[in-house]
Amino acid sequence: MSDIAIDTPIDGVCRLTLNRPDALNSMTFAMYEELIAQFERIRFDHSIQVVVLTGSGRGFCAGHDLRAGGKPGWVAEDLGRAQRNRATLARLGQIPLLMRGLPQPIIVAVNGVAAGAGYAFALAGDLVLAARSAKFVNAFHNAGTGHEMGFSYLLPRAVGTQRAAEIMLTGRAVHAEEAERIGLALRMVEDTDLEAETLKLAEAIMVNSPIGIAITKQTMHMNADAGSLANAIELENRGIFTSTSTEDTAEKRKAFIEKRKPVFTGR
Questions:
Q1: Residues 192 and 60 in one domain
Q2: CA pair distance 28, 105, nearest whole angstrom
Q3: How many Cβ atoms are within 10 Å of 69's Cβ, its own excluded?
């Protein structure tokens, strides 16, 4: 059985499930490579409108497996320590970039602990639903720093600079109820409801045209660092021009008027 399970719980949704439950879904280097490969595949699969990332068993992801993580196969064995670390981190750093770069929104459904890389995955997602059992732990301090994989960029933008500083510098855990309150998670749900609520959210997204969703996601993330309101509006306007020239956007409008579910064709 693969360490990353892939299924389609409902039409239009691709679910990636970290699948090492006996190790709290801690990451191996092979899993990082597989996750990268899956995101690169999904990017151009127009049948997929929403991606769900979750974990099997009682935890989402406990971070990197320090005991059985294997070796980064893309790094030459004869490199020095600093060079090996640099090459390793460069590859891992592609994951949050791929997640933010996907045209499809990513819902991260966090069940149990999200530590280290798991915490970074949650931050890189577009929407986070936290089960009541969810706990976000900055395990990067165990490696001598309090950040990795874009953590220091993403957390302040999610919860604000001072709150992020306190969480990062102390390394304290953030439980589901607080995660919802401070904006780290969209909302907390009961563990038994996590799957149903995740798919309900996915369905609410998929009533909109895929190109409209993709452009909205791209614009939202790019405009977080826009130099001015004028620049942000210009980027929005270019997205509007592109989207409104498609058959799918016309179908969305028609379906809304006719009070029915739209049927998108990718045209």
A1: yes
A2: 25
A3: 17
